[in-house]
Amino acid sequence: MVAQELESQQQQQQPPKKGSASLHSHEGPGLNILVGKAREVIQQAIVDPVTYLANWGRLYSLWPVHLETACCSIEWGAVSGPRFDAERYGILEAFGSLRQCDLVVVHGTVTRKMAPRLRFIYDQMPEPKWVIAMGACSISGGVYFDSYNVLPGVDQVIPVDVYVPGCPPRPEELIDAFILLQDKIRNSNIKKTS
Amino acid sequence: MSSGSSPELPKAEKGIIDAIGKLGEKAKLIYAKPNRIKFSVQRDDLVEVARFIRDELHFDHATNVTGTDFPKDGQLEITYHLGSHDGGEELRRIILAISCRIPSNDPKLPTLVNEYPSVLYHERETAEMIGCVFEGHPNLGRLLLPEDWTDIPPMLKAFRLPGRLEGE
Amino acid sequence: MSLPTQSSGLFTEQVSEDKLVVSIGPQHPGAGHFRFTIRVEGDTITECIPDPGYVHRGGEKQTEYRTYIQSIPMIERSSLLDVTNITLPYCMAAEELMGIQVPPRAQYLRMIMSENQRIISHLYWLGIQGIFLGHSTMFMWPLGDRDIFIDLGQMIGGARITYSYCVPGGVRNDMPPNFKDRAMKVFEYFESRLKDYERIFFRSPLFEKRTRGVGVLSRSDAISLGVAGQVLRASGVKSDTRIDEPYCFYKDISFEVPVYDDGDTWARCMVHLEEMRQSMSIIRQCLEKMPQGQIKVKLSPQQRAQAGEAYCRTEAARGAMAFHIISDGSTKPYRTKWSVPSFRNLIALPKLLVGSHVADMPAIYWSLDYWPVEADR
Ligand code: SF4
Predict the structure, then answer these.
(1) Does A149 touch chain B (CB under 8 A)?
(2) Which parts of C134-230 are beta strand (E)?
(3) pTM of the predicted model, to two decimals?
(4) ipTM at complex level
(5) All domains in chain C, ordered by first residue
(6) What 3-state class would DSSP assign to B22?
(7) What are the chain C neighbours of A174 within 8 Å (beta carbons)?
(8) Residues whose CB is less than 8 angstroms from the CB of residue C92 and which lie 6 or more positions away in sequence, other chains included
């Protein structure tokens, strides 16, 4: 298959991975990070086990609403596709009801016609819920900063947790945003969010 | 893709100009270049000319309707771009434009929906963007703008974009 | 900017016992950024009212405030699936007004990029059509293969999808020397993939059952409604701007325009499939014939255009795309009007949906390849 061949070509340029053995070759920083993470997790799990468990449950089952507001949705399609595959991080588009969703990814421009609908959808979702503003348009209006029909930023309508700049952001950036959001959830206090 | 009106127009274009010439005063030639011809008509003659173009010249669909504001002349210009699928090899490459100038203070013109069903949404869009009224159009409700749009139509030159200064 | 009140657009309607009004969108699995209301009687759709405008961003007005070259990134965003094909007619119209001849090498590069873009766009379409027909393999495969073509475009354009590749006077980047080898490899791979697609999807009984005879648009309707692109060609009209009015060097290239007489959803899907093959063959021929030379004419960013009008059209992935530019002789256009194929195809949606079953709605809707961002501009 040429697809795999092409990908493997790209991988060859990077240092080869050797599974667990690579831990030894990068012993210094790799181990430090591992120890730091483990301490964080253990500390949280001991201090407040309920919060830890609830957050852990939410972390890897973020279900985004299927609401496409503009052209950034193409990159969202690529993220759900096989090469980038957001499902690895537990992000799986819920083709069902809004009541099952806990994540809104705003795909770009929000026009004045779309804004009330966006708010309406957000209001219908149960707590806890998070919002990712994807693309320059949903942050500040982007190339449409002077348009008569575009909101200068989606944070006028709904509260935003993570901003992803780019026009459109590359899929990797969006995945990075998911990881940031998961970090945020991991460290959040459930008494406040619910 | 040559610019300007060249002296040797292809035969098909010449034929169209001659045929429309039969209408006399009703249609005035604005420009003719290879593949593109534009005529201007008065609004009272619009339907008649459109019918003639459809029946005699075999231009069977509209590809575009443009509404332009000319505040200096106090006029709006509505341009229909017509194309042909069934008119034969020669006609397929030609886009025939008919334009109609109407005064800004009385922005009314007859609709071409009955002659060209394809202008249905194009006219509706033009009506809301430029504020003209197509008389006889089945539905001139909001199409692209938000339902609660209260400002003047956005494609008028008097409408300035927010945050853009005069002459910027 | 104040927000519209919440009650503004969410209408409800009194529903009698056997009739139902169903509002679809703008949030539903499938078509985002678009809403339509259907009236159903039993299982049959009796009326369909499309309600576009959720992505109307006023690009036409914005071009009046930007110089010719400044508008390009913004125009391109209107059809992110199809970026080269939407900027190309704009550049052609601007060039016509400025009186510029584009160097041949740039023309060939433009053709390569637009055909590549056509494949990318069709693959995205195919992925969504797959999922609309409940075939998730057909979502994963095309989207994965699409990334390979995106890589190909990235080699020339430099960005993932938004290259702003065409500019008045030529193109921005030249082709890297290894492009040809890579492209040949990709095409060889993709041609075998297309056979797989056909086997698993296009020739499968499930696909045929769900699309044959569904949403039939007759030839005379297709012409009088002024639809464009695949919808037109699937209804038996052989119309393609690339042969009707060849731009760039399409007249030196031999390719076929797939035409089907059925006019149904199946035919529209098959036209898409066939066009991907043709696009690959066009790129192959372009790479063979590619002349050496300049890739652009240097222009001032404040380049003035002559007063006048230009109406230039190309064949974009979804059909004939045209730009009407009126210039008053200054550095900015006086008025631009974009005639986009999606907006032209919108008129076919009510026509096709009325009389068909609710379950067929997704297949019909997406077979039109209606891209709301492009339609609303
Ligand atoms: S940020 Fe760019 S790609 Fe995303 S919606 Fe806005 S214009 Fe489109």
Answers:
(1) yes
(2) 166-167, 170-171
(3) 0.86
(4) 0.86
(5) 5-51 (no CATH), 59-347+362-376 (1.10.645.10)
(6) coil
(7) none
(8) B1, C247, C310, C312, C314, C323
